[in-house]
Write a structure and sequence with these properties.
The chain is mainly alpha-helical and about 180 residues long. Helices cover about 45% and strands about 10% of the residues. It has nine helices and five strands, in the order αβααβαβααβαβαα.
């Protein structure tokens, strides 16, 4: 609330009235039973410009407080793992060139490094009554490897957006949220 990141991507200044409209919707929807709101974003993108971090953090706290004042519990989803390459394209290129696909993964250490800016900031919101959802366990195998595919298919359609199949990895965390409402 009350802040946007200037960028060639996104809504720009139109984010302010858009966000206000979303909050108005949340307020009106509480009358029909809405009690939980999940905030998901590419948090690292918002935090990469360290000169605006304090403004962003203040705006995020205001957003959380506004959601809570509307009568809802706020959940925040830490960024899902991202890849330094486009997985579908890389897999196709490796297959066409006869190269192995085994190096087309990241490990948990890389994922933790990639989300290092957001983790303490989002975790600090727990003190404001927010529940933070960490997707690490849903994407990491027993050996600490995060792959953009599984035995069913692609989890990503580019380096940081999940396919429908990939989003199913988060289903367990969302099911527990939805079940707690009933």
């Amino acid at each position: 609330m009350g802040w946007f990141k200037p960028s060639k991507h996104g809504l720009g200044g139109n984010a302010l009235p858009f966000n206000a409209a979303v909050l108005d919707y949340i307020k009106s929807a509480t009358a029909t039973g809405l009690s939980q709101v999940i905030l998901a974003a590419h948090w690292e993108w918002y935090l990469e410009d360290r000169t605006q971090n304090e403004q962003f953090q203040t705006a995020l706290r205001l957003t959380v407080r506004a959601i809570q004042a509307a009568g809802c519990h706020a959940y925040i989803l830490i960024d899902v793992p991202q890849f330094p390459f486009n997985p579908p394209r890389a897999y196709v290129m490796n297959a066409l060139l006869g190269k192995p696909t085994s190096p087309l993964v990241i490990d948990t250490a890389q994922y933790m490094a990639d989300t290092a800016l957001q983790r303490p900031i989002l975790s600090a919101l727990i003190g404001y009554g927010v529940t933070v959802i960490d997707p690490t366990e849903f994407f990491t195998d027993a050996s600490g490897i995060i792959s953009p595919i599984d035995n069913v298919g692609a989890l990503y359609f580019d380096k940081d957006h999940l396919t429908c199949h990939g989003s199913q990895r988060l289903k367990a965390s969302f099911n527990s949220i939805l079940q707690s409402e009933n």
